[in-house]
Every structure is written in C-alpha cells, then in structure tokens.
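Incident log, support desk, overnight shift.

02:14 A customer reports that sequence design results differ from what the structure should imply. Their input is reproduced verbatim below. On-call engineer (initials T.W.) acknowledged and began investigating.
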C-alpha cells in the first residue's frame, strides 16, 4: 500500500506525461488517475483541481530544468550545448514550459537553496565578463535569455522532424548551438 507521499509523486509523474502530451485543456484527469493507479477522488484530494495540478507540474519542471545547469564562467558557450543536450534528453520539460506560456500561466521563478537560479547564472556571466571570456557589452540578463534561446532553438523549429535521436544529427546540432553561442559571446578587440 502506498503512503500519501508516494501516491502524490506517482500522480505528478502521470500528470507530467499527460500534460506534456495534451496541455492543460486536452489533458484528462481520468487518464492521469488511471496511469497513477489512483482514483479521481484521491487526485482531487491531493491537488484540488486540474489547473492546480498543472501549475505544480510546470513549476517542478521549470525548477528541475533550470536547476540542472548553471553556466561556468570559463565555459559559457559549452553551457548552451549542455542546455541543448538537456532539451534532447528531457523534451517534456520544454513542452510543459511551452504549454504554460500558451495557457497564459505565469511561471514561478525557479530557485536553488532559496536563491533564484537566474541570479546564479547571471553571476557566472558577470564572472566570465570580468575574466575576459564574454564580451562586456552584453547586459548579463539579456545575454542569458539570448543564449537560452540559442540552446533551445531546435525545440521551436516548426518541422516535426526537428525532434530526432539520430546521433550524427544531434551532435551536429549541438556543435551548431555551441558555435553560435561562441560567436555571440566573443569579445571584440
């Protein structure tokens, strides 16, 4: 018999799968409950309603996704490649963030140890600028958002063939995003 914490965790896993595939509007509580081997009543007892469950899954995904990577001052461009790798390995996180934007949800700022994750990334970029690895002309937050866009670009390409597990194509695309990031951050002499 599962305890309440285990059941809650199983519901969240099932909800992530359902929401990533169908979004908030298309997701069905009965499918989530069935996948989690729970009753709809138990699901509602834990989360109240579908929107609250969706919001919890989105916030967890955003925190997990952004918490997995922090740029190193000496390897900012490589961080963009790592971001691409993470998107390939965990595409459901990107889908959840996209669904949240489409639904008009305000996503909570992800935190690590109580500090916003963006603060850590901005500090790394500032250190990279101070060490001469990144052009000082960039505002750190603007650069962070730009590099995030570069790393996640393939997730937004409107061709269904953009998603691939072909190792040669994945390696090529990773190299492209790292090269693009290298050019974006290059110091101008």
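02:41 Re-run completed on a clean worker. Output:
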């Amino acid at each position: 018999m599962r305890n309440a914490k285990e059941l809650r965790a199983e519901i969240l896993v099932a909800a992530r799968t359902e929401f990533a595939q169908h979004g908030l509007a298309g997701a069905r509580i009965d499918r989530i409950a069935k996948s989690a081997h729970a009753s709809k009543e138990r699901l509602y007892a834990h989360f109240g309603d579908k929107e609250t469950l969706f919001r919890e899954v989105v916030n967890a995904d955003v925190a997990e996704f952004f918490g997995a990577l922090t740029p190193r001052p000496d390897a900012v461009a490589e961080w963009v490649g790592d971001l691409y790798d993470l998107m390939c390995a965990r595409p459901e996180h990107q889908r959840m963030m996209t669904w949240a934007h489409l639904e008009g949800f305000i996503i909570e700022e992800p935190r690590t140890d109580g500090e916003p994750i963006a603060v850590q990334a901005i500090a790394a970029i500032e250190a990279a600028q101070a060490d001469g690895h990144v052009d000082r002309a960039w505002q750190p937050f603007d650069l962070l958002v730009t590099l995030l866009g570069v790393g996640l670009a393939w997730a937004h390409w409107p061709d269904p063939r953009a998603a691939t597990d072909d190792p040669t194509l994945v390696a090529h695309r990773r190299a492209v995003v790292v090269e693009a990031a290298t050019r974006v951050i290059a110091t101008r002499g």
